[in-house]
Predict the structure.
Amino acid sequence: MNKKTAYEIFDILKDLIKYPKTELIYSTDFELLVAVILSAQCTDKRVNLVTKDLFKKYNTPIQFAGLKQEELENLIHPCGFYKNKAKNIIEASKVIVEKYNGCVPQDFDELVKLPGVGRKTASVMLIVAYNLPAMPVDTHVFRVSNRIGLAKTNNVLECENQLKKLYNKDDWGNLHHLLILFGRYYCKAIKPQCENCVLKNYCSYFSKNNK
Ligand code: SF4
């Protein structure tokens, strides 16, 4: 796909989705980090339900660093994978307190050194919390960009690189949110709404399945 077509798709998505923002609710960058770690294999809706109570009790790295793993496990249980998530959140909080003076690092290479923080989580922190360029690829971004033809790959990192080549740095954050929300509400994993889709004239998946 060329840049011109890629930007036509971008403009259509911008018309369709007026507020391309994260649906996670947070009030500090540290809260966002905890919410993003919790959101692995879990819906944002469920994370928001859990963090609504969790952040009333604890919301700083010092507080999380001092928690017993079992207590945190109980508090985040509905998010799934709660043992690993609790362990990672506590360990990451300890590193933030000890190494970064209680402040979440704003650098990709430092973020991915934190326990439980991979490429996608670090990239989300950059675009959402710090307004820095990054292109996080989650399950929706991966599926939707491959279906449309913005990317053609089985590999998440390649998908990220292909999207980065097609779009200007300043647009990566917006594109990420547009593709997530489009995937969540329109181009769903099961039964995408192809017949009524605003992108059907551009979409590889649609043309392949409607010959
Ligand atoms: S036509 Fe179908 S597969 Fe293509 S983008 Fe739209 S909903 Fe997704």
Observations:
- The chain has twelve helices and no strands.
